[in-house]
Amino acid sequence: xxxxxxxxxxxxxGLSIATVSKALKHSPQVRPETRAIVxxxxxxxxxxxxxxxVQLRTGKTYQVAAIMTAPGPxxxxxxxxxxxxxxxxxxxxxxxxxxxxxxxxxRNFEESQAIIKQIVSLKKADGIIISGTRADDPRIRTxxxxxxxxxTYGTSVHNAPHAxxxxxxxxxxxxxxxxxxxxxHRRIALLNPLSDLSYxxxxxxxxxxxxxxxxxxxxxxxxxxxxxxxxxxRENVLTMSDLSNPPTAYICANEASALGAFxxxxxxxxxxxxxxxxxxxxxxxxxxxxxxxxxxxxLPISEPSSLLGAYILRRMEGEPPEALQTLLMxxxxxxxxxxxxxxx
Amino acid sequence: xxxxxxxxxxxxxGLSIATVSKALKHSPQVRPETRAIVxxxxxxxxxxxxxxxVQLRTGKTYQVAAIMTAPGPxxxxxxxxxxxxxxxxxxxxxxxxxxxxxxxxxRNFEESQAIIKQIVSLKKADGIIISGTRADDPRIRTxxxxxxxxxTYGTSVHNAPHAxxxxxxxxxxxxxxxxxxxxxHRRIALLNPLSDLSYxxxxxxxxxxxxxxxxxxxxxxxxxxxxxxxxxxRENVLTMSDLSNPPTAYICANEASALGAFxxxxxxxxxxxxxxxxxxxxxxxxxxxxxxxxxxxxLPISEPSSLLGAYILRRMEGEPPEALQTLLMxxxxxxxxxxxxxxx
DNA sequence: ACAACGAAGTTAAACGTTTTTATCGTTCAT
DNA sequence: ATGAACGATAAAAACGTTTAACTTCGTTGT
Lengths: 344, 344
Fold this sequence. Notes:
Chain A has 344 residues and is α/β, with parallel strands linked by helices. The first copy, chain A, folds into three domains: 6-49, lambda repressor-like DNA-binding domains (434 Repressor (Amino-terminal Domain), Orthogonal Bundle), CATH 1.10.260; 63-167 and 301-328, Rossmann fold; 169-300, Rossmann fold, CATH 3.40.50. Helices cover 41% and strands 17% of the residues of chain A. Chain A has twelve helices and twelve strands. In chain A, the strands form two sheets. In chain A, strands 2-1-3-4-5-11 form a six-stranded parallel beta sheet, sandwiched between helices. Chain A has a six-stranded mixed beta sheet with strand order 7-6-8-9-10-12, with helices on both faces. In chain A, α1 packs across α2, α5 (83-93) packs across α12 (302-316) and α10 crosses α11 (255-268). The longest helix of chain A is centred in the middle third of the chain and has 17 residues, at 198-214. At the A-B interface, α4, α5, β2, α10 and α11 of A face α4, α5, β2, α10 and α11 of B. The first copy, chain A, binds a DNA duplex (30 and 30 nucleotides) through residues 5-7, 15-19, 21-22, 25, 29-31, 34, 49-59.
């Protein structure tokens, strides 16, 4: 038994395939009674739209390309990015639409650039979602120039506005710094992502601005940029704690680096809360299981991810990007007082 | 300027589209010289195969469905599963093929069952990759009955053989237990995944078998089943350490639960290496940053994932499943002696 | 009374491929 | 010399859908 097509329904009802097609997509050209007959027949024979026919005819792919930058097999250190949750959030947002998530795993920035050019020029998808945006991101320019619908996870500083979702890094650092300063910290370290990433820049600027506001000097030795692995957190604690005037607080950009920072504490014999404290931005809600639990800014990844899905749908429907820009403020979770128990 | 098709090449070369099509796919029906002309023209005009035409004509989708069970937005606790790396590994394995990974995020087992039925009956993909297999898995039966190509990440005990990749849980537990017993442990706790999961059963059986071999009694109070979150690890340490005869070693099925176990140690004032030790199975290579680092069995997720990709390709080409079954033995990484420093 | 119109369908073409079948020279055995 | 067999290419149909263009017929306005 073959899979039924609109032709089957046409024979079944005595109508033409054109009418059937129109009826199924609620064209005003077909009378309600006729439509009812078609719908009934469609259900009776178990009709399901064949996307391949549609795709060929219309040129639409009904695919949303999710570009995922994951380090290659040789370099698989944990970076605490719950890409999986990000992807499933997007996938769920598209659930009731005909669109599917098509995965493009790339190893680095250059590869993502190449892939995006290919998707755009060969129209392998109707929309693109990327993350890890840079301040001036050539991929965004590519997509923009081709007038291709896209949404970014992360901001950029292009003059042309585009749809994006991101955590409110500026506010997060501002609040975080104010809170630490208020608790007596004068030497605050910033463990930041790679310096070309847009959110790294945002965080750094907010950090400097906060220092300025508090009348504290900016010390480059207290700022580090790198891939946010546990190793990164550890190394930097080892280095910075050796300074003549070591930091009393570490702001980690994710919980992988925070975990590494703890490892550094352990190595140096530092006690959290006595010698220094660690604050982090937490995607996984895992810092509550650190020993001791630390203060974090927590943004359940389901929020940005479902927004990304919703926004790409709306972009593909032609909605202007200006309306599709959101900064989400992570929730402050104070698990620790973060005042040092004895001054140094 | 329109995108070139085989028709463009036909006009360009004066050949028929049939010949062009055959030439491009290396049919023996076309002379080498003719083929050369076609290839040259194709490159000159920048021809790229349009998959939609192929899909409609052949009925093949060139999609591999990856079913990813991620807990819903309300329940997003870290389970230490690097799905993202799994997905990218699969994606890279398909890189040089015409196949793409199409993502299907589901919230639970029932949903995955429904999705798979749909994919199979409506032929929305040419192959399926699933994980989280159960001992007797209805999804496997569905795919098997329809003679649909699939590979599982995880074993099952069906009579009909199927393609799978998994960690060698049996051997891992056997070696792990022998090692702990040798180091003087008599009360060993097993923190296991949900009891309906196939690998949970394998681990439990191997555990009981090892106890028997060592002449130790099986105590149900030392075995727990659950979602492998930090909370799970923590709760069980809290409970088990209160036993009149508490365990001196905890075998955790992943590093999320191991992290939680540490949190439990901290809460109870237990010291790792003095009161008890934690061993784990590690996907992320993150346990080296625990304080102190613990002994783990480490399997870089890139290995199983690239195998999954390779196997689904071969299955879709009709290779029998018997040849596509692999158990991978994780590497023992001893970061800790695991002998208690003082007997109790 | 008749042109004009609108509503509701139908016809037919088109999207880009693959594949079956047909065609047309050549070669080879008889 | 005849025709069977073969090799290389062309013609045509098919996959399932959408949509522009057309038909039909009843209604409306003058």
